Amino acid sequence: MSEANVLNVQNLVLKVGENCLIDNISFAIKPAEIFALVGESGSGKSLTSLAIMRLLPDVIRVTAGDILLQQQSLFELPEYQMQKVRGKKVAMIFQEPMTSLNPVMKVGDQVAEVLKLHLGLRNHAAREKVVALFEEVGIPEANVRFDWYPHQLSGGQKQRVMIAMALACEPDLLIADEPTTALDVTIQAQVLDLLKSIRQQRGLSILFITHDMGVVYEMADTVAVMKQGKIVEQADKENFFNHATHPYTRKLLEDAVPKQTLKPQLNSTKLLELNDLKVHFPIKKGLFQRTVGMVRAVDGVSLIIEKGQTLALVGESGSGKSTIGQAILKLVNTTQGQVSYAGENDNQINLTDLSERQMKPLRKKIQVIFQDPFSALNPRMTISEIIREGMVSLKVGSQNKQDQDERIDELLMQVGLLAEHKHRYPHEFSGGQRQRIGIARALAVEPELIICDEPTSALDVTVRAQVLKLLEDLQQKYQLSYLFITHDLSIIPSIAHKVAVMQNGKVVEQGTVEEIMHNPQQDYTKQLLNSAPELIRKVMFA
């Protein structure tokens, strides 16, 4: 391999006991090159990055191969020397910035810590350097934001803090592990542009780990595909997208953009109507916690969800999408306006006027699937107990345990799992399987409306395609209605009948998928569509 390479991974093998997790992989990253490592969850991408950082758990052994950083074997360095390499020569950005930042420490101090450790900068000099870094990564009012805590920043700003921390000591190699997965399209576009401009200015090499082919198309110079611990294909970007040879790569590319088939507009009756819905949260300050203002999370929204149809609600984080879902479910107490639900014989019931006791019978009619299936499932309960819980508490179907067991088996098979899975716990499943369990739990109480709150944003492209197909099949079979909350524009044509676009608590535009995707009227909608990765735009607007 060329001496010019910043990183050489040579015939790396990682094992747990006799199980091979990484199987003889080799690749090289050149100066100022963006090298994308792609594949599904569990393929070994993040393990490879942890091996480069020498942060592998003790149970995982390196049984063969080597990793060279500028011709220096990282495996030969003692730990005290490796500590000088981490942060100074190789830095890493993680997928979820909130869990990577200390919640009780100011963000500026967290970045300054890196400078103090590696460069010996102190106090005023460290602060000046951090503020300059914050300005470089596009954090507004950098001097003020230095003293903010992580919870005071948006998701995109937290990710920018992580990038500033990674760049603090001017490393030769930046490892970006799914850095945009949890971000909106507009924020994702900004973060990707930022990484590209920093690469250009600093000559920085980037190992970009992702499962998003749109991001790969936007960013990569070279692409390697991992499956079950092996690299099955490696090529420069042009050959990769135009002449992929491996069947697995072709499947990834096929699933990268959901089929753009517009759903027919059916005549349907109203199931749920929001009329001038408002959710305002008080801002309290001072010793006596006096109210000094209001956060208008939802500010006069009117929407209609029809029987057997899907309304997609799109917009950036903080626009109020999830708060609307919570208001429908009566999980927020500061609701004004009307949420009308079509009850028996289409009698309209205003949910906002109901007490918790009056609302309980309607809970079986309106269910929810959450974004993060792991935190939404009780880790101490088996899958059988998780699904049975709603059937018992809401008295749905037979209360005979044997009948319920049969119903649980049937539900698991409907969502593509096996009946014997009911005895397992959530941690024993992959992300896609856990999301299927969440869907089974929602179906167990025979709902008419399911609020899907970003249900596919954390999933791989192939798993996402399966979950979307499952939701579509279930809709056709049971005439379900969905409120589908998402920031992923590429999935809207394959899942939605109508679309509403939210910004700052208001619906700025709504209409059919065709109208919104191909003839948007509002500048904000156009900005959202233009922020989608080029690969997605090519297919959406073909």
CATH architecture of the largest domain: 3-Layer(aba) Sandwich
Summarize the amount of helix as a percent range.
25-40%
Share of residues in strands: 25-35%
- Spans of at least 5 consecutive residues whose pLDDT stays below 50 are none
> CATH class of the largest domain, anyone?
Alpha Beta
Shape: globular
What name does CATH use for the topology of the largest domain? Answer: Rossmann fold
Distance between the termini: 41 Å
Family: Belongs to the ABC transporter superfamily.
GO molecular function: ATP binding
Keywords: ATP-binding, Nucleotide-binding, Transport
Protein name: ABC transporter ATP-binding protein
Description:
The protein has 542 residues and is of the alpha/beta class. It folds into 3 domains: 34-45 and 84-256, P-loop containing nucleotide triphosphate hydrolases (Rossmann fold), CATH 3.40.50.300; 258-365 and 447-469 and 477-542, P-loop containing nucleotide triphosphate hydrolases (Rossmann fold, 3-Layer(aba) Sandwich), CATH 3.40.50.300; 380-444, no CATH class. It contains 22 helices and 20 strands. A 6-stranded mixed sheet has the order 6-7-8-3-9-10, with helices on both faces. The chain has a 6-stranded mixed sheet with strand order 16-17-18-13-19-20, with helices on both faces. A hairpin with a 2-residue loop joins strand 19 (498-503) and strand 20. The longest helix is centred in the middle third of the chain and has 18 residues, at 185-202. The two termini are 41 Å apart. The mean pLDDT is 88. Residues 7-253, 272-529 form the ABC transporter domain.
